[in-house]
Amino acid sequence: MTPFSIEPIDFDRAAVGVWAELSPRHRNWPVVYVIDGPGSGAGAVYVGETINAAARMKQHLDGPKRGMGLRDVRVIIDDEFNKSACLDLESHLIRWFAGDGIRSVLNGNEGITDAQYYNRDRYRSSFRAVFDELHARGLFTRSIAQIENSDLFKLSPFKALTETQAVAVEQILEALLADLEQPSSTTQSVVEGQPGTGKTVVAIYLMKLIADIAESTDTDTDPDGRFAEFFAEGYREMLAGIRMGLVIPQQSLRESVRRVFKKTPKLRAQMVLSPWEVADAGEPFDLLIVDEAHRLSQRASQGSGPMNTRFATVNERLFGADDVRYTQLDWITSRSRHQVLLMDAEQTVRPADLPYETVATILREAGRAHRRFRLLTQMRVKVEADYVGYIRRLLRGDAVPVPDLGEYDLRFFDDVGAMRREIRRMDAAHGLARMVAGYAWKWRSKKDKTAFDIELDGERMRWNSVPTDWISAPGAIDEVGSIHTVQGYDLNYAGVIIGPDLRRDPATGRIFIDRASYMDRKGKENNGYTKKTYTDDELLVYIRNIYGVLLTRGIRGTFVYVSDPGLREWMRTRLADRPSDVASHAG
Fold first, then answer.
1. CATH top-level class for 163-375?
2. How far apart are CA 547 and CA 553, in angstroms?
3. Which stretches of the chain drop beneath a pLDDT of 50?
4. Which residue(s) pair with 114 in the sheet?
5. Closest Cα partner for 114 from 131, 91, 86, 83?
6. What span, in angstroms and rounded, lies between the C-alpha atoms of 567 and 571?
7. Fold identical between 163-375 and 387-575?
8. SS3 491
9. Which residues form the GIY-YIG domain (predicted)?
10. Phi, psi at residue 540, to the nearest 5°?
11. pLDDT tens across 198-226, in order?
12. For 387-575, CATH number?
């Protein structure tokens, strides 16, 4: 690539007019530009691309951006830029600015692309140099690695969608707009996908896209965007004032997404809701998007006595009686006209979650109504083979062929200390490497901060010290996270301890649970409201699902330690003796 230049301009008409005459390329050449203000460390930023920078600046000066406090323009020019490269650089910069979190990104997300084009890798190799120069000029505060490891980046609405994600968003939006034309209609759509297919990405993207359409103007619309047809007169008016929310059952993930929404123009932290907040809202919603909908609760014992009373009170207020049939999903459907549910039946991890029968019925009815959308592309785990499917079959005890995982770093450890040291090393090199485990040890350190919870192979470890945003918390590298702190999150490397709650009988080959070793009280208690008792075989499904989630967190690699000797030897042959494997580690 030839050297690029970054040309500064004041964001005013006179300065742009003078700059326009300095070179023909200022009026006729593909470029990327950044407009920001009121200065380093604060304010807002807008990123764009155009083939006529001077004319585009004048459009912005005549439009709403003139009153947004923007002051400075940086135009990035390269002799070898073309339209595709500029679109790609624009998308990267938008995502990096959003992940840095120091400025509000004024862009919509409909123009974010991840398209293939000629010499894409060569162009992308130059993008880091552009970033570094902008960083040196004070527009970024963190490195690319720090940005891309942050929740602000991973949970950002500025994502390039896969084809199946884009199709789902497009079809959901088409159906919603058609439904809104019928004031009395009520609908429910389902987006189904395994871990890593980007269900949360779709939920957040859809919220931002709808907000952008509702507040759009003709000058803000990208005519080449995938969703350009929705930025039209009529649709804007239809979505203006729409009352919508994103419901997230898990507390930790909910708080992380709230921080993202707080930083994103047109979105608000108050849009991110718990099921309880939906039930208590003063006004009904037009649209509720529910992430991890399988984690909504049925009528079961809550975490405290007051919460049990509150559940009954909600049921009585909404339905006239505290009938055990009513779940938090019923709260959501009663409080909204339209719902989009994102779910995966194999990620239910507690008996209090929606019953399998309920989830199966939802999926079946959505299919009949042609409102069931499947996400098929694995985005998290960097491997072409069906890693998620392999892990799920492995946990069922199936004799499945071991796939070739290529460069994916899947390792089996005989010594938990060796695995812990390797996780520390990967965290130093790449960030976001964490130890996680099944809930097979009591949480003694919750009340006694000097106590240790997990003791294995001479290692003494504590469970996560904070319940929310543990992955990013100080000291997380020294702790062990549970299912309740990592579900919905990405890690670069996950060191997974499979505890004594999951075992294998070498004589029969049967994988089973040790109920006494499963320490999540709420994860195994019977349901006194529905009079449902849970057999060991039923709890086995939940515990398998827990390990299925833990073993699919790692983007670059997963390290595995198994407590039970029978299960350890069987898993060793499938994890340590696979194609292209690094040898089993004994420390």
1. alpha beta
2. 10
3. 39-41, 579-584, 587
4. none
5. 91
6. 6
7. yes
8. strand
9. 28-108
10. -60, -40
11. 999 999 999 999 999 998 876 656 666 78
12. 3.40.50
